[in-house]
Amino acid sequence: MSIDPKPNRQPEIGAFFQRDRSWHPPAFTPGYKTSVLRSPQKALLSLDNTISEITGPVFGHDMLGELDNDLIHNFAKPGESAIGERIIVYGRVLDERGKGVPGALLEFWQANAGGRYRHKKEGYIAALDPNFGGCGRTITDEDGSYAFRSIKPGPYPWPNGVNDWRPAHIHFSVFGHGFAQRLITQMYFEGDPLIWLCPIVRTIPDRAAVETLIAALDMQATIPMDARAYKFDIVLRGRRSSVFENRLEGN
Amino acid sequence: MVQSLNRLKESPSQTAGPYVHIGLTPNFCGIPGVFEKDLGTDMVNDKTMGERITVRARVLDGTGAPLRDALIEIWQADAAGLYNSPTEIRGAADPNFTGWGRKATDMVSGECLFETIKPGRVPYKPGVLMAPHITFWIVARGINLGLQTRMYFADEEQANADDPVLARIEHRSRVPTLIAARLDDVYVFDIHLQGDKETVFFDI
Ligand SMILES: [Fe+3]
Description:
The structure holds 2 protein chains of 2 kinds.
Chain A: E1 45-46, H1 51-54, E2 86-95, E3 105-109, E4 135-139, E5 145-151, E6 156-158, E7 164-166, E8 169-175, E9 183-189, H2 207-211, E10 214-217, E11 228-231, E12 234-236
Parallel strand pairs in A: 2-11, 2-12, 9-10
Antiparallel strand pairs in A: 2-5, 3-4, 3-8, 6-7, 8-9, 10-11
Chain B: H1 20-24, E1 52-60, E2 71-75, E3 100-104, E4 112-117, E5 123-125, E6 128-129, E7 133-139, E8 147-153, H2 157-162, E9 179-183, E10 186-192, E11 202-203
Parallel strand pairs in B: 1-10, 8-9
Antiparallel strand pairs in B: 1-4, 2-3, 2-7, 5-6, 7-8, 9-10
Bound molecules: fe (iii) ion.
């Protein structure tokens, strides 16, 4: 972990906007059975951010390997590539004020083109692709933008109902600048009819919220004869202005 | 109509799922070679200042069974009470301490171990210190939005008694859910998702 000293950029040190918990899925969602015994039942302790949540680790571009943002090749044998529909996923990480978030670490993981994960607890009969690991990462640029290459993951069945299928999706983990912004979510693909049937998608109460997780096919960002493109923007909590607040300096 | 505030909504959370390790600790789950080392494995090195400690954490479900597919991240100040973050404006933190750790819980025992140091105290607001604590973030299959909580230290009785965050807990019988017991150099912290011993989680 290295920290990029940007002397001309004053760090923002305000507390984050209160999280809108009615926009996120509640903890207890019986349609997604595993949540039943893993959901806290008591009220959360509401607290304005302290310095323990306003701060957070930041990651430098120098930690990235050349193929970290290329899931087609980062696990493949030399000269080979993963099987599947070649795609580019790109977008921006923004905060709730609409500002790009530079230096955000994005980590992503997904099933292969057949819907199979490379994991010892995975039980689906679809074949493993020997050239596909399923993980990658990148760090956003100055304006919050990012991009990576992959193959389109397949949908897969999972033990919840007897016939529940996950829509094709990519899992994302996001680090902004404060530990209170820490977020894990999933990206879905435009036009997938399984989205609206999925018990995990349906943990989100508001259809408009679900729609913000559906990446749009962007035929202007494709590479002809190579890969189609999907645009996926991610929004992290915004910060309050600290101009009128007591600062913690000198304590 | 009035003017628009032009705010965006935070992206809604979705569960990390059962395969979170593929993305966040690939070497741990048998995907070597993509990243040299899993991020967050090492918090300290031989030059790190402060008292070395081990934190042994588990996450237990509503039946009391430990989760064997959880992922825990911790974030803490250095021995002098400074965070290794660009947002830390009070001074420069120990460059040999990252302050951030990430561990998957063991697939058999459900335990994970963080090798770290005891954090110093940090301010709550000017003139008011919090007791030493470590911030926890917990994700797993079945958890729809990452859970935030804190671990305090049982051997900091006076500081804990004065802590302004612990003071906010209305039901005093729940305060001990945030306090890790010390066994030799190991602090033991069990996070209960439900039940009589349900841990106090934060909306922060
Ligand atoms: Fe998945």
